Amino acid sequence: MNLYEGVAKYYDIEESEYQQEDMDFYIEYAQKCKGNILELGCGTGRVSLRLASLGYDVTALDLSKEMIQIVERKKNEQNCNLEVICGNMSDFHLNKRFSLILTPGRSFQSLSEQKDIISALSCIYQHLFQGGLFILDLFQPETFLKYQCKDDKTIFSKTVGNEKITMKYACNHIDKKNKIVHTTYTYEIEKYNNFHQTQKAYMELRYYEYKEIVTLLESVGFKIKEKYGWYDKCSLEKGHEIIIVAEK
Question: Which of 21, 76, 28 lies closest to 51, judged by CA?
Answer without folding.
Answer: 28
